[in-house]
Amino acid sequence: MPRFPRSYIKTSFFHVITQGINKEYIFEKEEDIKHYIEIMYKLVNELNIKIVAYCIMNNHAHILIRTENILDLSKYMHRLNTIYAMYYNKKYSRVGYIFRDRYKSEGIYSEEHLYNCIKYIYDNPVKAGICKMAYEYPYSNCRRCNEQYNKKTKENYIFLDVDISNEKICKRVIMEFIINNSLNIEDLKQNEYELRELIKILKQEYNISLRQISKELNMSREKIRRLYNR
To answer: Using DSSP, how many helices (H) and how many strands (E) does the chain show?
Structure first.
């Protein structure tokens, strides 16, 4: 069973991003987007998941999810993307992956953070020049979340972007892990239990290669591999 950052225990809200492989379109037509949304809500009834906000673009999707169990989030996203991939491959007579790596997720830790994230999600089509106002975009639930969407925020947060590099993700997760566990980098390297936990988080939840992990931690790849496989 994968381990998760301890900070995740403190939140029930997660900003999830999933993107097409090679940034290709995975929602070719309106009916494809509608089918993905239909699957999203169908699976909600099977798992302990609540969809707070979403915006589906042609080559990626943003979903803000509420759940009390991080494992339910993992199950939900795996089933959602697997079912849609089967539909897409059959419809367009293709085989293979359609999503880029695994989904990316980011915990939400305050009320201001939450409302800022909602605004960020709904503003995607506005930033892309598809519409002038977020509520005009038909493939989000912005119109149903006006109260949340119009909430004033006091802080600015940087959210995961679809083009964020694995290197940046790796650096950020390492920094968060060190802060959340009251460590410094040298203490972390000497504590094999915490180090192994961090390596598994990076590898299993963010799909960061052992090579990249060893580079960012400035440790031998062999030791990283040994800890991961232990």
So the answer is: 11, 4
The CATH class for the domain spanning 6-149 reads alpha beta
CB 148 within 8 A of CB 154: no
Residue 71 amino acid letter: L
Q: Half-sphere exposure of residue 58, counting CA atoms within 13 Å on the CB side?
A: 9
Beta-carbon neighbour count of residue 101 at 10 Å?
Answer: 13
Q: Where are the beta strands (DSSP E) in the chain?
A: 13-19, 50-56, 60-66, 104-108
Q: Which two tokens stand for residue 151?
A: 């909430």
What does the DSSP assignment read for 63-131? EEEE-S-HHHHHHHHHHHHHHHHHHHHHHTT--S--B-SS-EEEEE-SHHHHHHHHHHHHTHHHHTTS-
Give the pTM: 0.64
- What CA–CA distance (Å, rounded) separates 162 from 157? 16
Query: In which residue are the tokens 């997760």 written?
Result: 173
Whether residue 174 contacts residue 216, with contact meaning beta carbons closer than 8 Å, is answered with yes
> Residue 23 pLDDT > 50, yes or no?
yes
pLDDT (tens digit per residue) in 141-155: 987 765 444 544 444
Q: Which two tokens stand for residue 173?
A: 């997760």
C-alpha to C-alpha distance for 93 and 95, rounded to whole angstroms? 7
Query: Rounded to the nearest 10 degrees, how much is the dihedral formed by the CA atoms of 207, 86, 54, 18?
Result: 20
- Identify whether the C-beta of residue 124 lies closer than 8 Å to the C-beta of residue 163: no
**Alpha-carbon distance 87 to 64, whole Å?**
23
- Strands 50-56 and 104-108 come out as unpaired
